[in-house]
Input
Amino acid sequence: MDILGRSALSLRKSIKEKRVSLKEIYEYFLERIDKYNSLLNAFLTVRNDFTKPEREGYGYGVIASIKDNFCTKGIRTTASSKVLENFVPPYDATVVERLKKSGGVIIGKTNLDAWAHGSSTETSDFGPTKNPWDTTRVPGGSSGGSAAAVAAYLSPVSIGSETAGSVRLPAAWCGVVGFKPTYGRISRYGLIAMASSLDCPGILAWHVEDVAFLLEILAGKDKFDATTVEKPVEKYMAELENYPKRMRIGVPKSYLKVVKKEVEKNIERVARIFEKFGWKVEEMDLMDPKYAISVYTIVQRAEVASNLARYDGIRFGFGRDRFGFEAKKRIILGNFVLSHGYYGRYYEKAQKVRRLIILDFKKAFEKYDLLLAPVVPSEPLKLGEFEKYPFFGEAMDVLNEASSVAGLPAISLPSGVDKNNLPLSFQLIGPSFSEKLLLQVGYKFQKETEFFGMREKLLKKYP
Amino acid sequence: MKITDKTLDTLLELSGLVVKDKKEREALKKQLSETLSYVENLEEIDTEGVEPAYFSSDENKNQFFEDGEENKRGLLREEALKLAAERYKKFFKVKRIL
Amino acid sequence: MIDLKNLVPVIGLEIHVEVNTASKMFCQCRANYFGSEPNINVCPVCLGYPGALPVPNIKAIEKTIRLALGFNCRVRRSFKFDRKHYFYPDLPKGYQISQYDTPIGENGFLEVDFESKEKVVYKKFRIRRVHLEEDTGKLLHEGGQTLIDYNRSGVPLIEIVTEPDFHEVEEVVRFVEEVQRLVRWLDISDADMEKGSMRLEPNVSLGEKLLSGEIKLLDYKVELKNINSFRFARKAVEYEIERQRKIFEKGEVPKQETRGYDETRGITFSQRKKEAEQDYRYFPEPDIPRVELKEEFVEKIKRELPVLPIKERRELIEKYSLRLSDALVLTREKRLLDFYKQLLKELENEKIEKLPQRLANAIVNKKVKIEDWDTEKFKERFLQLFGKVEEDLVLVEKVAREVISSFPKAVQDFKKGKENALMFLVGQAMRQIRGKAKPNTVKGKILEMLRS
Output
């Protein structure tokens, strides 16, 4: 049976039709992981023993990998840090529980930048993950392991997390679909906290329908996470094909200014495709993203410094002497902006500008249904290249920080390769709780372009 | 903004971190200074009369739980102590502090 | 130069009470941990595990509002929680979820009644703020190690801060006692200092009393910790006032610091220096959305607020001419006051002189025991003691004789010297006499017969 590259949903269908068993599919992926993980280092922990799920619910037949900053009961969870090298949580994160309850299985934990601090997965204490398109390059981060796992088809879908670009950026650099929901749409309970007011669990896949499916399972109010919202979860799957006939899409000029020529050209190409669908696309003004970089840097560092204070090695894990340089840097800066005398000038100021960014988007969405923008300023960097950039993570995420601080949903979609055979992509940013629309547009784009054959192209390298 | 050794030491104490290596200290001071210099671009924006947005949305409010609800997350003592680096009988343990 | 004669104590109080909710403040573990085995009352939230998140207990908020109203505070309808950062092994997250600049209650007062030379004096002490936070775990220091029990971690805690309105130790002790009463009256906490469900940290300094009567605060204050009984509170504050006075006598000013109370030696000793330099880096708790209470929510609590104990006492004193000391006993518990008032009503028509005082006396001095809060039983016994009883002396003699012949063993025991035996006989007799004679009369008759 031909499995390579198929969507999780299509595999689930075959399992339901008894053409293949869940166990066989699971072992198929285990084989691939065994074959390619030493090269890619996408997985930190692999569950080599197949255990049949407790029940055959809506999600039965789905096999997912999950970023190693989600607590999985009985399975080592490290956040890619030596501080948690031996931590085996006695409880599941809510997204893990929901997946399991619906009959889904987790095949392994994927690599990330330690504590999700980074945009390349190079700050992992367990070695970097390689970009499957070119293993001398980084996959992006912090959900680099998830993106690489999906791209090389080591798992059909992966659950990652995004604070500002951590799903969108690696998805773009690995040429797969990356989805970040509205803040509060999916529960953070059990997600090792980085920046509490920004963290969002996200989904990576080769197929938009897989994202829609998984979103239905994972989304919704969680009484263990007060920041989740009461809004009912929509029927993303059933509505997937009902894309709007008329739409007005804005392209923020200020975002195009900070990217390489080829990236800009790619956006223009996508805009033409959207126009062929009958949608209106035009350039518009949005606040200069450089301010969002500052807002994000300050708020995130402050929340990180606070959230990492619990790692004292007393109740679990190891002591604070095991924090890597990147983590130390962020904790120190975070405490600086919160400290007496600087709080008003930095932290409070950043939160005020954050309000202005939120209003800026609100205004934009009064006129436009969605915004079309690049995801990353450049093609994937080579390993080690990041050190050249001061403040690298933030610079790479310049196009994602504003929508993140505003809590908005977005989808990153692959749209071909550049002259060096590296993936190109674009993102759509929507107003709060417009997940349905983003998925509809993503699905339409996928049907019409089949992502320019990128999946087939890449998987030829990973037979 | 320039970061002095004294500031760095205060921050290290607040952060519960110890960094004695000179090279690392210099790298931290430098990166801290650079980052602070960049984020000072926020001063270009007028925020007079603007309320800070501690949450990305103000709509979610009044999230509580009802007192006396069943505890579905209680842990057994052994489950918890098993994860600890040091334990003594039924307690977590650290070196004496007082 | 400060004139030592004009130095007066200036004391402010910080009181913490553990709230008697069923669940902890941010998780569903039990809030009542007293007497539990260590570390059995825990979950990922109160242990500060990675990924755990807090969700506030609405009842704890309700009870805090109740207390704030009891203190005549302005109650906020809209408030938030904040993170307060510091490292200590009993603080799992490395920060405590508390309230910084939006405390639930502010600018209130507590009025306290004092007995002074046959009069009752009323003094008001100002409450600066009342806020809600979570408790820490407990540390046990032994040998070369410190042991940690997290049962208490996350229990809801109300912090009460007063203005430095206290100038005498008596005021401090009486005030804290009144807070204890109020908190129990309003069903907020059992406020037991020995158990640790009420904790006191007085800030003690000496100020200069000026000619105008105003007290000039000097620029320091000493925080006292580790006081776990009223007795020690008095001793610690007294000791500290003396210690500071001696420093002034030397021409110096006491250092601003935190001092612990050593109960075995009866002294205070220096603990953490530079308390003021702790930078807690407060910022709004991002995991908990703002609280914005509907007006009706607070109004309902206001409506259901019982009359405060001091007001009840005032009524007892002014309406019934009770002594303050008796009023204090009667208002120790709402149940007891309700019992008293009920009895007053039921005994209205018995034409007993000075009924309110006699009744109070009977209860306070345990002349009549309260059994199962049964007013019938109590009334019966009370009337036997104080009621106008038409004594049937012929019946008394008859029953006395009967009882003596029916219980020879008791008679013998009494003759051997056992006093209880007499009471037994009286009891048996009273059963038959049923209100037709007073116990003392019956006792007298039986004694007379036994002695003859």
Observations:
- Chain B has a mean pLDDT of 95.
- The helical segments of chain B are 5-15, 22-39, 77-82.
- Chain B is about 35% helix and 5% strand.
- Residues 5-42 of chain B form one domain.
